[in-house]
Design brief:
By secondary structure, the protein is an alpha+beta fold. 34% of the residues lie in helices and 22% in strands.
Length: 422
């Protein structure tokens, strides 16, 4: 959990056995039996050595049997086959901080992004060439139902701890070309036929070609559906995009965007600034937005709570709101649970993607031949007496497609209305 986001970002730039310096099809090449056998042995040895409780969900016998099956078929596997096998097995360990990472690999994506809402996969981002697909429902890829595909991708997605994070991690990997082809869900490596449905269930087919992750994130122009928060504007002098505060128009409330974790020093400075603002403007309500926060150092989050607690103008009985969703993970989950306790906060939104009680605090090691990164849990944290799948909100509000498609943040809309009724 601690330093989770920082570690994850570092993993994104770490080279692997299918690195960006190698040909794009290296992941589909035959596996080196000797190298992978050595890596698999070290995978087991190091997990047993470093994980706090490796066999809390999967038995040692089952774990060893599956590893032996993987090793026995290496001569028939490609590199991506082995990676998928080890991702699937790692998921069975059962905690969201133990993972087998393929994030440094030269991979490819199909140029759309989907969002799961109202039991449908909706297109929320496309290249300009395919902007007509925005808002449609993805129905199938190469004739296979998107629900079947999502289930298969969900079985290998990493950083999954409950149903909420499974949806989010599935979304992150759903357009991954190597996984789709490696799981035999597409017919060709870098091109597939997609079927979409409009609001009248009229079908549209499109043949989409893959682009590299580098081009996807650095060199491609997209059009997307974005939500805005009414009565709120990010200050021009904010140091970070992920951490800032602003008053909510026509209220005595302040909104805090807390999407990632700064350093202790930066949070101390931020805490002093918002405390000064609260006292100067006689603020009554606080909204702490932990949505889309994938984690960091939860001790940094307690700094924020410390400074907020110094203000006497806040309505400490019913004036503190914490927003969560399925992306809220690791330290952000812990802070949400803590804020409920020490700030008497009302949790609004969706259950978090990780659990407030469970195996967390991430370490890692690198396999010598493939250079794959394996992470593991080092600690057991208990931020709730009652064990739940995610921090359960006091007010459950899921993202509504009708609002989302119009750019309306229906969760914040509810909060603002509730504040104005006080």
């Amino acid at each position: 959990m601690i330093r989770f986001l920082i570690t994850t970002l570092l993993l994104l730039i770490t080279l692997s056995g299918c690195s960006q310096t190698t040909p794009v099809n290296v992941c589909f090449q035959s596996a080196n039996v000797e190298h992978w056998s050595e890596d698999i042995d070290l995978y087991k040895i190091n997990l047993e050595k470093y994980h706090i409780d490796l066999y809390n969900k999967i038995s040692k016998v089952e774990f060893e049997e599956e590893l032996q099956q993987i090793k026995s078929k290496l001569n028939k596997k490609t590199n991506i086959d082995v990676i998928i096998d080890l991702m699937r097995l790692t998921r069975k360990i059962g905690d969201g901080h133990t993972s087998f990472l393929a994030k440094g690999i030269e991979m490819h994506k199909f140029p759309i992004e989907v969002h799961y809402t109202n039991q449908h996969w909706k297109v929320i981002k496309t290249t300009l060439e395919h902007k007509n697909l925005l808002g449609t429902t993805l129905a199938s890829i190469d004739g296979i139902s998107i629900n079947e595909i999502a289930e298969k991708i969900g079985e290998i997605a990493q950083y999954v701890e409950n149903d909420q994070s499974k949806i989010h991690r599935t979304k992150q990997n759903l357009m991954n070309v190597e996984f789709l082809y490696g799981l035999q869900l597409t017919k060709q490596k870098f091109e597939a036929e997609f079927t979409f449905l409009d609001n009248n269930n009229k079908k549209t087919k499109a043949s989409l070609k893959a682009i590299s992750n580098k081009d996807y994130y650095e060199n491609t122009e997209f059009q997307s559906i974005k939500t805005v928060i009414p009565g709120l504007e990010k200050p021009a002098d904010s140091k970070h995009d992920f951490l800032w505060f602003s008053p909510i128009r026509d209220t005595k409330a302040v909104y805090i965007k807390f999407q990632s974790y700064p350093s202790f020093t930066e949070m101390e400075s931020f805490g002093e600034s918002i405390l000064t603002f609260i006292k100067k403007n006689n603020i009554k309500q606080i909204v702490i937005d932990l949505r889309n926060n994938g984690g960091g150092d939860f001790f940094v989050g307690t700094f924020l709570a410390y400074y907020l607690n110094l203000s006497d103008s806040i309505d400490w009985k019913s004036g503190v709101y914490v927003l969560t969703d399925k992306v809220t993970f690791s330290a952000a989950t812990s802070n949400a649970s803590q804020f409920r306790q020490i700030l008497n906060a009302k949790i609004v939104g969706e259950p978090t993607g990780s659990n407030p009680t469970g195996y967390q605090d991430m370490g890692q090691f690198v396999l010598p031949n493939s250079e794959m990164i394996v992470t593991y849990s080092k600690r057991l944290f208990r931020f709730q007496d009652q064990i739940t799948q995610g921090v359960q909100p006091d007010v459950l509000i899921e993202y509504d497609w009708e609002s989302f498609s119009k750019g309306i943040d229906n969760v914040m809309e509810w909060v603002i209305n509730d504040i104005k009724e006080k």
